[in-house]
Each structure stands twice: as C-alpha cells, then as structure tokens.
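Per your request, structure below.
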C-alpha cells in the first residue's frame, strides 16, 4: 500500500496516511493534529534502491 502525504491548511502540519490505491482518488483525509478537513495532498520524495550493474 502506498503512503500519501498531506498538509493541513489550518495548522500547516504535514502528515502521512497509508491507504490502498483504490482509495487514493477519494480526496483529502482529516488532520490528525487539529481534526480539520481542510487538507491537501502533496508530492512526497521517493527513495529507491537499485542493483548496481557489473
């Protein structure tokens, strides 16, 4: 399951939510800090480990 990152427009805190891809288009999630519904999904950085070519 992917991790989605959000920012709260009221308290300006960022938080992450683990949710299935099928639920991704359902929009924002409530802020765990202040409970606001005014949240927006933001782009997260990606980290990948790959095999080195020999």
């Amino acid at each position: 399951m992917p991790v989605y990152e959000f920012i709260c427009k009221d308290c300006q805190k960022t938080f992450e939510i683990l949710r299935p891809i099928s639920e991704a288009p359902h929009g924002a999630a409530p802020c765990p800090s202040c409970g606001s519904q005014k949240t927006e999904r933001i782009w997260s950085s990606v980290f990948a480990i790959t095999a080195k070519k020999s």
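The chain is about 0% helix and 30% strand.

Regards,
D.
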